[in-house]
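Action item from last week, closing it out:
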Amino acid sequence: MSSRNFVVRRLMPGEGAVYRKLRFAALENAPLAFSSSPEDEAHLGDADFEARISLAEPDAVFGVFGSGALVGVATFIAEKRRKTRHKGAMYGVYVDPDWRGTGAAQALVRQVVDHATTRGLALHAHVIADNAPALRLYLGLGFVSYGVEPRALLVDGVFYDEQLLIYQPRG
């Protein structure tokens, strides 16, 4: 593992433009990691990403900052309906390839886990079933699989299954 300094924190107002830039890089570089495509979000401007950052608690967007730049992002969205508001999901997890292997991805996911669990919320995630690095990351941090959604994504005429995960505290 490479030794590089980074900080994980919640994104703040005024960081919409850098969030938008990283999001579009993620959609271009990792099309199987997201249900959205660049075309789906092309109409969104910096103000739309500012709105995403300004989510009401417990929803949050977290970022990894390294070398003075936003290099990773993850979003937590809690359910709002009375019968399901005890749980939430982690979405849009992405770390720039130059920052993989540095511990940044683990720290980012741990931040989301801490955010959800300290609020008593169950944390769900989903990953393309053959994305071995992402599955290793999640499973290594305490997520467990509870199923597979067949044909969850259709990208360039090919269907991909998603592994459904939930965080289970160890111990």
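Closing note: The longest helix spans residues 16-29.
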